[in-house]
């Protein structure tokens, strides 16, 4: 089963960039999970001010909007893809990640959303959800 975790927070820059200790701890956790075979991919995203676009389909047409997006209260700032045996295992790995934030950057506020990825036949019925 694959799950994606998406880290969301405000783009309020009053805190500045993440502390190096946090980045080092995240890197170490990522290496540990990669060796264990549970980490498929992970990464951080630059702020929308560094360049972002939205492509929208509406009424049979596509439109492109340039960022930054001032109306967004929260944006996705990073992600991880896990290959695990259960939803509970995905949650445990996500909790470990968030505990690093609590330890190394306690003034940061945000959340991580964890969702199972669609993988075709055998995947939970999307219509039943």
Automatic annotation (TrEMBL):
InterPro entries: Dimeric_a/b-barrel (IPR011008), YCII (IPR005545)
Spans through the membrane: none
SUPFAM superfamilies assigned: Dimeric alpha+beta barrel (SSF54909)
Domain of life: Bacteria
Family: Belongs to the YciI family.
YCII-related domain sequence ranges: 1-94
Lineage: Bacteria, Pseudomonadati, Pseudomonadota, Alphaproteobacteria, Hyphomicrobiales
Gene source species: Hyphomicrobium album
This protein's name: YCII-related domain-containing protein
């Amino acid at each position: 089963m694959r799950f994606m975790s998406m880290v969301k927070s405000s783009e309020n820059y009053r805190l500045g960039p993440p502390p190096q200790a946090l980045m080092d701890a995240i890197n170490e956790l990522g290496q540990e999970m990669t060796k264990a075979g549970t980490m498929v991919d992970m990464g951080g995203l630059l702020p929308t001010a560094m360049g972002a676009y939205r492509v929208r389909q509406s009424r049979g047409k596509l439109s492109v909007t340039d960022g930054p997006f001032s109306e967004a209260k929260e944006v996705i700032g990073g992600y991880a893809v896990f290959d695990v045996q259960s939803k509970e295992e995905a949650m445990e790995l996500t909790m470990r990640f968030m505990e690093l934030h609590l330890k190394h950057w306690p003034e940061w506020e945000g959340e991580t959303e964890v969702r199972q990825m669609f993988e075709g036949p055998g995947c939970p019925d999307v219509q039943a959800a």
